[in-house]
What we know:
By secondary structure, this protein is of the alpha+beta class. It has helices at 5-21, 25-75, 127-132, 147-154, 172-181, 241-244, 312-324, and strands at 82-84, 86-93, 100-107, 109-111, 123-124, 193-196, 231-235, 263-264, 284-286, 289-296, 301-305, 328-331, 334-337.
Amino acid sequence: MPISRHEEACGRQGARGILRAGFTLIEMLIVIGVIGLLIAVAVAMAPGFMASGRDTTCKANLRNLANAFLQAANSEGGYFPVAGSYQYTTTYRNSSTGEPGYKANEKKGWISWAAKKNAYPKFAREYNAVRTAPLNAGWHTSFAAGDTALYCVTNGTLWKYTGKNLSAYVCPEHKREFENESPGDRHGPLWSYMMNAFFKSDTSMGECAVANYTGKFGKKRSETARLNKILLFAEIQALPASETGLPERDFGKGSGNWRTDCTLQYKGLAKNWSGSGEIVGFNHKHGSLFHANVAYADAHVDEIELPARIDRKNLEEMTAWLCTGTDFSLDGETFKQTK
Length: 339
């Protein structure tokens, strides 16, 4: 059947419409080039976005822990939770013989030890024995991997106030570093923060090792000044010296060595301090500058930048000033106390 002139004209217009709706080769190459450029930019910026996300999560963790600290104080009649678990004694008198005795007691820290049932003596014969011999032989080895350490986190005084959230105890930057060093090891760090020993912990050089100290209570909130200046939580140093330039890290490297104390034992904590103190951890980076995330006793969170050149002594001094609420400033490349 012959094709009419009208149908032939419509066919030509339809063909031209199809051609106009497609892409030329040059247009296709331009689109592909733009997409490739966007992908390259996204890949280059992704590590920065991911680091920023880890930084934000770390700050949220610290804020959660600091708020839990204040909630616990409100629930305990205004007494702050203590930083590190310790023992104390109370006296009693035997009703039959009238002889005095000493009862051993446990005071839990924000992360507590995993004492097994009946693993410690109920009564101590004398005060010195309690002070030198822990109630449980493993009471301060609560930093081992596995269920024991997990129990220590959940047995701490802040656990129920954090929403029982395990992730609140670990900075994702700390976790990332662990996974890089110990891939396949299921026992990662169970906490990556330290609580200021200013809020009491039991060590041979700590505040609790003083005469006639009963240990029943922590510091009283109403009698503790400058809460907005006193450091409450700091990070454990996770990044290696090769990356940050800091003298050392606060834990061993490799599988099974991600263990550290949960209290920040700063230099000058007690008069008989003879060794070096711990330092605040700097694990986050903006551009070329590292910074530490810290929480203060009034629950606000802030950053402290790490100067380009700084030594261990200056970091120890800065940490001690933070822990005691002493003003300090950055003088060029070093920290100095504000007079």
